[in-house]
Amino acid sequence: MVSATFRFYEELNDFLARPLRRRAFSYACAPAATAKHMIEALGVPHTEVELILVNGESVGFNHLLADGDRVAVYPKFEALDIQPLLRVRERPLRVVRFIADAHLGGLAPLLRLAGFDTLYDNHYPDADIEALAAAEQRIVLTRDRELLKRRSITHGCYIRTLRPREQLREVFERLDLAGSAQPFRLCLMCNVPLRRIAKEEVGTRAPDGVLERHAQFVTCDVCRRVFWEGTHWQRMRALMDSVAAAPRQSVRT
């Protein structure tokens, strides 16, 4: 029987059974087990892992474990630029795009508000999320760790916080999105680009008095809603500014 000693660091411990957290422990491995197989068998999605050291040497997920190996597993490092963070093995992401699962219905429109193409449908089965993420090179956002263990999902984030605005801050910090945000570019409902329209085109799609108080308008060609820089826009602008300006957490050891 093959047995290896494992040690998980920082937030990866959140996925482990309590007796295994923040300490080295021995664990029996399946025959011909890879590092990925055992890491996920212990409860940690592979998308949360940045670095694996076996006996002090960096290895990939497909590394076969041997009896007596010492395995150290580290989380995504926080103080990295967006492209290195999102580079996975041989395939980098060219554009930052997301797909959010049914648990994140409040986060999806906030990411769209920040200008990030984000698919969301609370009826998506896990298989559809997996297929769309692979076909369109999207980052999977979820509170379901089992979803992130699916083989073809290579880019993903397990969301730890519960409130949508805090979830937005979490994603911004983990993926260093402040420099990539383009607020007010997408429709919050339809996830398609907004376009400017002349005041004359607005017609009855805005309440009485809005045309007199505002000069600039944008619209969504799917839902045909019209938007302008009112008090709601100002609140959303303040949220975007606060998220983009939030100091990043330092790298933890």
TrEMBL record:
Q: Which SUPFAM superfamilies match?
A: MoaD/ThiS
Enumerate the InterPro entries for this protein. Answer: Mopterin_synth/thiamin_S_b (IPR016155), Mut7-C_RNAse_dom (IPR002782), Ub_Mut7C (IPR027798)
Task: Please list the residue ranges annotated as the Mut7-C RNAse domain.
Answer: 97-239
Q: Give start and end of each Ubiquitin Mut7-C domain.
A: 1-81
Annotated PANTHER family? MUT7-C DOMAIN-CONTAINING PROTEIN, MUT7-C RNASE DOMAIN-CONTAINING PROTEIN
Name of the protein described by the UniProt record: Twitching motility protein PilT
